[in-house]
Amino acid sequence: AAGVIQSPRHLIKEKRETATLKCYPIPRHDTVYWYQQGPGQDPQFLISFYEKMQSDKGSIPDRFSAQQFSDYHSELNMSSLELGDSALYFCASSLGLSRGNANSPLHFGNGTRLTVT
Amino acid sequence: DAKTTQPTSMDCAEGRAANLPCNHSTISGNEYVYWYRQIHSQGPQYIIHGLKNNETNEMASLIITEDRKSSTLILPHATLRDTAVYYCIVRPSYGNNRLAFGKGNQVVVIP
């Protein structure tokens, strides 16, 4: 079965640079979620989108922004990168938040490992 | 959001059933119990979820107590590949629909 695809798998950037991470959800999934996992930490929710609209916001820095496109893929844009942004970034997708799909499980990609030097 | 409490770590014998406990004493009526696992920096993997009835799929069984204040994930025949961090998560059925990861249980399957 098709899974969540994230690109790139690895990314190395310098401080103050920008980075763009991409996420392609499972076909027919219309909700995407972004998570950040620092070294030795548990995944932390950043932001989610449903039908191209932001649906929830977590601990996402103001330097980060994200959007979901008409084909449901999503991009996480990170500017003015700091050393502390070095982490694994996971994208997940699920069926929509409508009442009938309220408990569709999230399925995660294998992440993008961002290293800021 | 309701929070969960799990052991920090536990060992399980290969080939035996692994019983992973979780307490969620403040769970509300519209919240589901979800289980995920993460194998060494891979993406979290969905295992199973339930509301109040016991659930079973090809990976595991989920036993939820009648008062819903605790649950147990059962891996019927643990293998070395089941070594992972296991997360028990309570998730609202509507509104704020995120999965909020807490501290997981590092499970090591021993030969």
How does this model look, in words?
- The complex is a heterodimer of chains A (117) and B (111).
- Chain A has strands at 5-7, 10-13, 19-24, 31-37, 44-50, 53-57, 64-68, 74-78, 87-94, 107-108, 112-116.
- In chain A, strands 2, 4, 5, 6, 9, 10 and 11 form a seven-stranded mixed beta sheet that branches. In chain A, strands 1-3-8-7 form a four-stranded antiparallel beta sheet, with no helix packed on it.
- Chain A has no helices and eleven strands.
- In chain A, a hairpin with a 2-residue loop joins strand 5 (44-50) and strand 6 (53-57).
- Chain B is built from no helices and nine strands.
- In chain B, the strands form two sheets. A five-stranded mixed beta sheet of chain B has the order 1-9-8-3-4, with no helix packed on it.
- In chain B, a hairpin with a 5-residue loop joins strand 6 and strand 7 (70-75).
- The A-B interface holds A 4, 31, 33, 35, 42-45, 48, 55-56, 58, 88, 90, 92, 97, 99, 102-103, 105-111, 113 and B 32, 34, 38, 41-46, 49, 51, 87, 91, 93-94, 96-104.
